[in-house]
Amino acid sequence: MTESGEKFYGYGLGATGDTVAEVCFNTAMTGYQEILTDPSYRGQIVTFTFPHIGNIGCNDEDDETSNSADPRGAQGLIVRQPITTPANYRAASHLNDWLVKNGLIGISGIDTRAITAHIRDHGMFNAILSHQPDGNFDEAALQAKLAGFNGLEGADLAAEVSSQQSYDWQQGRWQWGEGFGDGQAAHHVVALDYGVKKNILRCLAEAGCRVSVVSADSTAEQVMALEPDGIFLSNGPGDPAATGAYAVGEIEKLVQTGKPIFGICLGHQMLARALGAQTVKMAQGHHGANHPVKDLQTGKVEITSMNHGFTVDRDSLPETVEETHTSLFDGTNCGIALKGADVFSVQYHPEASPGPQDSHYLFDRFVAAMSAQGKS
């Protein structure tokens, strides 16, 4: 049921009950488990444009959320075809069983092309997804619950997904036939957790970092007390202006320390706000693993993974900030750097593998900046 009153009927998947959220679409053909556990999708129901979701099952290694208390990222999912029996050697469970275990509601048998076209033409919309095996729905109650949902603008969702307990991370990236490796720690990075993905932490470890993860509301003083060589601002969900109400001032203080700073996704947006720019809500957002981004400094084009419904307003960038990357789909900002400083960020997800490793150089750049400061 949508906020405009439209009703779609299909076959329930996963957990029972109902969930209300913003509906977006994702164009990736693979990685549905990573998508559903990405904390950046909190507050959203994902419509998958690829029709066959679930055919490789799920496993214990591909969850992206690092918050063990709440493994969910997305609020629910919409798919075209029924889930088939998994056919992959890494499958440990059926997707439907995994959905039940993680409390996620889904629906199949839906014309996902129609939903995608609607979002393309009119923007993302709010909806309530309900799964009742007996087919009895209290539509008045569902409508009331949907009416009470205020959407993602003004929503601080990072506070919901951030770990409240600090922890250290040293696990490296997954290697074929070997599993996860061990990072070689040469630098100490403090990561502010606005909804950080595990693979970001793995990429930092693989690049030579010992990572201390701290909560989203940590102060600059608490971060610097850990004596970091560099500071990382993570991805996450919600409105950067809302999370920025308590985080941007702390990021401003961290910039003033002169330490190298690297941000991704929500971290990129909040760094931009800390440097004097503004962020705005997008109509469709960017959700997929096929987004071309141009590095304006080298001319190189990267195939990237994206997941964001807000963007940095490039026209608001101050003269002290350089635009480093831009989307070749719609020209929106995808990267910035503070002139004369080791402070930079990107909108996309360099830890994901659509390229598959087109963007891993960003982790190396961050490490190189820490190494250069260590020698000075």
Please characterize this protein's 3D structure:
24% of the residues lie in helices and 30% in strands. The protein is of the alpha/beta class and 376 residues long. The protein folds into 2 domains: 11-147, Carbamoyl-phosphate synthase small subunit, N-terminal domain (Glucose Oxidase, domain 1), CATH 3.50.30.20; 158-375, 3-Layer(aba) Sandwich (Rossmann fold), CATH 3.40.50. The strands form 3 sheets. Strands 7-11-10-12-13-18-17-16-14-15 form a 10-stranded mixed beta sheet, with helices on both faces. Strands 1-5-4-3-2-6 form a 6-stranded mixed beta sheet. Strands 8-9 form a two-stranded antiparallel sheet. Strand 4, helix 2 and strand 5 (105-108) form a beta-alpha-beta unit. Helix 8 (240-256) crosses helix 9 (266-274). The protein is globular, with a radius of gyration of 20 Å. The termini are far apart. The mean pLDDT is 94.
